[in-house]
Every structure is written in C-alpha cells, then in structure tokens.
Amino acid sequence: MLDTFDRAILWELQRDNRQPMAEIGRTVGLSEPSVRRRVRRLRRDAYIIGDVSLVDPDRLGLTVIVLVRFEKESQQTYEAFKKEMIATEQIAQCYTVTGDEDFVLVGHFADMRAYDAWVNQRLLTNRAISRSTTHVVYRRAKFETAIPIETIDRTSNGR
Predict the structure, then answer these.
(1) By percentage, how much of the chain surpasses pLDDT 90?
(2) Of 10, 26, 106, 128, which is least surrounded by CB within 10 A?
C-alpha cells in the first residue's frame, strides 16, 4: 500500500520526472536518499512503469478516435484484434470497453491519406468488425497524463 510520501512522490514525478531527487525531497519533506530508495521501490513494484517525453500530437499530424464494434464477440476475436492493435505503430491507445462498442482506439497519423490507407488495410478487411466510427480530433480541450493519486488510492485501497 502506498503511504502519503509515496503518493506525493508519484505526483511530483508525474508532474515532471526530470526534477532532481533533492527537489522532490524538499517538496514532499524527505531526504534525497529516502526519495531515491522510494522511487527505486516504486519502479520495482511497477507503480512506475516507464519514463517518457510527451510529444505534442498537433505538431505531428492527425489524431483520431476510432470506435470498433464486432459482429460476433468472442475471446478469440478480441485477443486477435488486441494483438494486432498492440503491434500497430499508429495506435497509441487501445481500450476494451463496455457499451455499444467493443474497442476504443486512439491513433496518430501523418494525414488523412495515411489514416485512410490504415482503415482500408486494418479495419475494412477484418470480417469480424461490423462497424467502425471515426472521430477526427480538431482541437484538444484537455490532455493530462497524470493520474489523481490521492483520489484513486483512497477509493481503490491501493489497487
């Protein structure tokens, strides 16, 4: 279970993971060595799963949200589709969801021509898909990668 210091460290790392450990320590009220030990443990225990640089998708092309519905749902169909989407470079996020749709995809493409080629190659040839709907993102209102640790940790008992 995460304690108050762990949650504060995770929040700080989500805000800026390039800040020095000593600065995080000052912010959360711990020594630099203590912060380093905790961060090592948080990585080992897979609370921290990676360190990345966030790139502005608006500067690199087109973002789309694709809703996918299958004709007949089966574990085999889902697993095959998930495996394909995981291997698809243009798909940044793939979610299995409840409701009318089976999957929600978030993808990034150079332009509409590249997106159209992908749809023709990956979705229209998949006989299991009964329908897909695409939403082209033309303006981002909010983009946040940080998880509200305090709220989630209290409601989920740490998991």
Answers:
(1) 79
(2) 26
Quick check: 84 pLDDT over 80?
A: yes
Pick from 97, 79, 157, 84: nearest CA to 133: 97
Structure tokens at 22: 């000593």
- Averaged pLDDT of the chain: 92
What is the pLDDT, as a whole number, of residue 159?
43
> Considering only CA atoms, which of 126, 23, 125, 110 is closest in space to residue 59?
110
Report which residue type is found at 66: V
The rounded distance, in Å, linking the Cα atoms of 137 and 125 is 24
DSSP annotation string for 40-52:
HHHHHTTSS----
